Amino acid sequence: MTFSALIIGANSAIAKALINQLLQGNQPLTEDSTGRHITEIISISRTDNEPLLHSPVIHRRLQVQDYSEASITEVINQINTESTCLRMVFICNGILHDGNLQPEKNIGQLSEFALQRVFTVNTVTPTLWLKHLFPVFDRQKKQHGNTPCHVVVFSARIGSIGDNELGGWYSYRASKAALNMVLKTMAIEFRRRIPNVKLIAFHPGTTDTPLSKPFQKSVSKEKLFSPEFVATQLLKIIDETPVDGELSYLDWDNKPIIW
Ligand SMILES: NC(=O)c1ccc[n+]([C@@H]2O[C@H](COP(=O)([O-])OP(=O)(O)OC[C@H]3O[C@@H](n4cnc5c(N)ncnc54)[C@H](OP(=O)(O)O)[C@@H]3O)[C@@H](O)[C@H]2O)c1
Q1: Which of 52, 96, 169, 209 is the most buried (most CB within 10 A)?
Q2: Residue nearest to atom 20 of ligand 1 (CA)
Q3: Digit-coded pLDDT (tens) for 205-224
C-alpha cells in the first residue's frame, strides 16, 4: 500500500514549497493522527516539474497536456492504481494576470476574453479535477475503508462576498467565489457518499510568487509571506483539521473566512 500526496499545478511557487517539505519528511507532514506515513508524492503540471530533492519519499512527476477534461482523465488513469491511497490532495491552479490580461479596476475594463480565461483556470479546472477524482476516492473507500483524505483547493479571501469592501478585480474575485460555491456543493455530496474526504478552500495570504509579483508594492514586508512559510502553515492546518463532512474556508492562520 502506498500512501500518497497529490499536488496539482506543481509549478506554483507554493506547490514547490509544499513538495519540498513533504520530501523532507518533516513531522507532522508525513504522519497524521492515524500514523500512516506519506510514502509517495505525485506532482502534476503542464511542464515537466523538475525533481526537487533526494528523499526516501518517492516522487512521481506527471505531465498534463493542457488541463482539458480529456487530458485530466488521461492523468487520473495513471494515478488510479489499486495500491495508491491518496491522503492529501492540493489543487494549486490559479491565474490573476498574464501577458494578455490584468485584473480589472472598473466595469469598463471587463472583457469576455478575460472572464472566460480566468474562470477556466480558477473555477473550471479545479472542478474537473474533483469530478474525476471522485471515483478514485470512491474506490479507495471501498478498498481502504475510512482512511481520511484532506483535499485543499487554493481559493482566496478575495472570493469572499461578505469581505468585499474594495471592489475591483472582477474576474478573479468572481471566479474564486464561484469556486467556493462548487466546493460547498461538492462537500454536501461528499458527506453523503464519501465522508472520509475533507474539503478545504484555502487562502494562503499574499505570498511572494509570480501571481502576486506586480501587486506587492502596497504590501508591507510582514504581510508578504514566503511560499515556505505558507507551506508549513498549510501542513499544520491539515494536521489540525478534523474530517467533519463540511467545507472549511480557512486562511493561512487557520482562521475561518466569512463566505
Ligand atoms: N500568491 C498569492 O498572493 C495568492 C493569494 C491568494 C490566493 N492565491 C492562490 O494560490 C494558488 C497558487 O498560486 P501561486 O501564488 O503559487 O501562483 P504561481 O506560482 O503563479 O502558480 C500558478 C499556478 O496556476 C497554474 N496555471 C497557470 N496558468 C494556468 C493555465 N492557463 N491553466 C491551468 N493552470 C494554470 C500553474 O499550473 P502549472 O503547474 O501547470 O504551471 C500553477 O499551479 C492560486 O490558486 C492562487 O489564486 C495566491
Answers
A1: 96
A2: 211
A3: 999 999 999 999 989 999 99
